[in-house]
Write a structure and sequence with these properties.
The complex is a heterodimer. Chain A is built from 6 helices and no strands. By secondary structure, chain A is an all-alpha fold. Chain B has a domain of 211 residues. Chain B is globular and about 75 Å long. Classes of the chains: A mainly alpha, B mainly alpha.
Chain lengths: 167, 500
Amino acid sequence: MDLFEIIFYFFAAIVLVSALVVVLSKNIMYSAFSLLFTFFGVAGLFVLLNADFVGITQIMVYVGGILVLIIFGVMITTKVTGVDIKEGISGKLQYAGAGIITLLTAIFLSLMFINGKWITGSSTDVHATIHQIGTLLMTKYILAFEAAAILLLIAFIGAALIGRRKA
Amino acid sequence: MIDIGANFVSELYKSLGMFIPETVLVVTFVVAIIMDLIFRKYKNIAAFTVLAGFFVTGYTLFACNSSGYAFSQTIAINPFSQFFKFIILLTSIIIVIISFLSKELYAENRKVGEYYSMIAGMTFGMFLICSSTNLILIYLALETMSLSSYVLAGYTKEVKRSSEASLKYVIFGAISSGIMIYGISIIFGLTGSFDLLAINAKIATGNLSIAPLLVSGIMILAGIGYKISAAPFHFWTPDVYEGAPITITAYLSVASKAAGFAVLIRFVLLAFATPISQTQPVWQVFAGIDWKLVLAILSVLTMTLGNLSAIWQTNIKRLLAYSSIAHAGYMLMGLVIMTSAGVLAILVYFFMYMLMNLGAFYIVMLIANKTGSEEMDDYIGIGYRAPILAGCMVVFLLSLTGIPPTAGFIGKLYLFMAVIDARWIWLAVIGVLNSVVSLFYYVKVMRNMFIRGTDKTEEPLQFSRVSIVIALILAGANIYFGLWFEPIVRWVNECVKSLF
């Protein structure tokens, strides 16, 4: 096992364990905080795969933005902290059903990813990708770039509209 | 890597020339917002700006007759996309006009500037969907459309069911677009490209693993199926259609479905199939996965579920919601057979569907303006209280059922002819049986309007002259295109040719 694999399994373990905590924890605050580690682990995996830009974006957007929002949301709406998860037979059945479906999906996806023929990039050292991404955004994907701008404008106006008190 | 030089710049100029209608829409969107901020006193200033912008867009769309790929092959401008753009634009114009008459929208002195600018933004998103041939752009355009429609569905936010509709729409929409982008990522892993043509070339080699291709294809179909509310991705439809303002319900049921069908047809035919030959207008699915069967199952599920659920509805908006699900199912039949006659039938059907569905929702809106209700029971005796509008409603309902001499009949005729021609007899039989079921609940509305409650002596409802004229125009169009459908078919024929 070389260093690359050790680091990969390290991050993968972080992602898996913390994701399990997110789902299984009864306290929504714990879930929110362990989501932090999930995002962090995923960012590590991205960097490991030479996707430095995506890794940094992952940290900035998810850890820096979305997660803080989630935690604030949880803190402000006090009622959410003690959500009752269904007890009794029907609750257990739901757990079992969800567990089985998740397990089957996981097995299926794993088999699919292991057995499929995937396009793989060159494994030689790749330099920083930001330059290439920037060039692509301004050439081939310029329309997508501009469309994203409109999309954000619409999202802004929509958010303001929903947040506004009755006019 | 694309080389950036004089070549690229001239290419970009050429692309911009083909992109004028969309550019006008973006300008309209921004100007409408600014006008609304500057002239706060004039309530409808944004509406008039948007309307003017739509007419300019229509003109540029009409004038733009170049076709080909633009923006490094991320979008394709051709008569096929032009057709759907015309449908969407026409719907948007009609929706803006009938929004002026909506009482629920203007209730409590609400500010409506953003409502109209959001419609412009949504139209831009839908235009982009119609012409994108790149999965990234398709996703972004779908999101542009969805985000504006989430906001529009919850525009009357102090009405509880409207906010509820918006929230449900957001949550289901987020899940479906999440599934879709996961599918896109898998297909990228398989083919190494987002470009539909490149994906097609890769699949054509037959050198791909079947399971991931099937999974990713179904995931992407789920994302698009959500937009056209095909079963089993239709759960949101009745609740959202019931809760949203009626104008927006009508808009969602026509325009966003048109965009969904445009991208669905393009995606399936461009990525998963190839024309057998130039002369023979039939597409052939690549060996491995029987997409025709997948689509056939989707189609049968959609129309059967839609029609059977519609029977039990007591709210007319919910009834029309289920009926629109059923109509999506009929139109999917045209894609199943993958012949140019099938695509032609979808396009013709869509034109007719636009006329009849907008009309039906318009009448529901006018009646809700006066009676404040959308329940079926409150339609009892409407035929005597508002005879002209009820008469128009009968035309729209007959058209939705597909009874001659209305537009809906022509749509169904072409569709079933194409399906039978392609020897999918069992599918055609299910379709016809479904149409018979649909007659039942459409007639239920007519019965409530005319046959029940004749003894009631409630005073007649008064409508403004403009609103009646619009209703008559829509009803007239339904009959006109039911009789003189030649021009539409000829136009659509040109559009379908461009898909080869």
